[in-house]
Design brief:
The protein is mostly helical. The protein has one domain (8-210). It is built from eleven helices and two strands, in the order H-H-E-H-H-H-H-E-H-H-H-H-H. Strands 1-2 form a two-stranded antiparallel ribbon. Helix 3 runs antiparallel to helix 4 (48-57).
Length: 211
């Protein structure tokens, strides 16, 4: 495993890899103890959006880690939604780093449902890997990031899972998988919005009762 290779052509071949291999190859390309988001963004060019969103969203499947990565995801989603082809990270985000060991550990955090989806991923042309499809993915990533930043019981997992599927489809140029991810992300975000809305309503009612 020599790492995600250093040329765009070789990177294209790696689009076939499942999440566990993608994560392992990223870790192998950067031998240091920590890997910065800026380094990953520079290394993966026009596929950096999908890869960075994928890697930032994986920790959201673990308890207590979602909100930490919400702001970087928000910025990436805004840039993607506005039509940028490659991410331009502010310095304070580009300098954020992930431990190689944590990165490798995250590969095992994916659920059995995600593993099932990975088996069917392959390059497929279609709307969802077009420029308009990329913009849609970007704005849905913004929606997910907002749900991750806002606290709520059980509101992180569903949006994060759908966004991981979307990002996996982007990395591997699979329009069908991106489309599945779009549907899952939208459903997950709407669920989280309803939960947060219900909590806000109950809070307002409680304040009214107290005062």
């Amino acid at each position: 495993m020599d790492g995600l290779a250093h040329t765009p052509t070789d990177l294209h071949h790696e689009h076939q890899a499942p999440i566990s291999r993608i994560v392992s190859e990223v870790a192998a390309q950067f031998p240091g103890a920590r890997i910065t988001l800026g380094e990953m963004g520079e290394a993966f060019g026009d596929r950096a959006f999908g890869l960075l969103i994928l890697l930032l969203c994986l920790p959201s499947m673990l308890p207590g880690m979602a909100s930490v990565f919400g702001i970087p995801m928000l910025i990436l989603g805004l840039q993607m939604g506005m039509g940028r082809r490659e991410p331009k990270l502010p310095g304070f985000i580009a300098r954020q780093s992930i431990k190689r060991e944590d990165l490798l550990r995250l590969a095992g955090a994916s659920s059995k449902w995600l593993n099932r989806i990975e088996r069917f991923v392959k390059p497929r042309e279609g709307f969802f890997i077009s420029p308009m499809g990329d913009r849609l993915v970007g704005w849905l990533t913004v929606y997910t990031a907002a749900m991750l930043i806002l606290p709520g019981p059980g509101t992180n997992g569903p949006p994060a899972f759908g966004t991981i599927v979307m990002a996996l489809g982007v990395v591997e140029a699979d329009s069908r998988v991106v489309g599945i991810g779009v549907a899952l992300t939208l459903a997950g975000c709407l669920f989280a919005t309803c939960v947060l809305g219900a909590l806000a309503w109950m809070g307002i009612q409680a304040l009214g009762w107290i005062f």
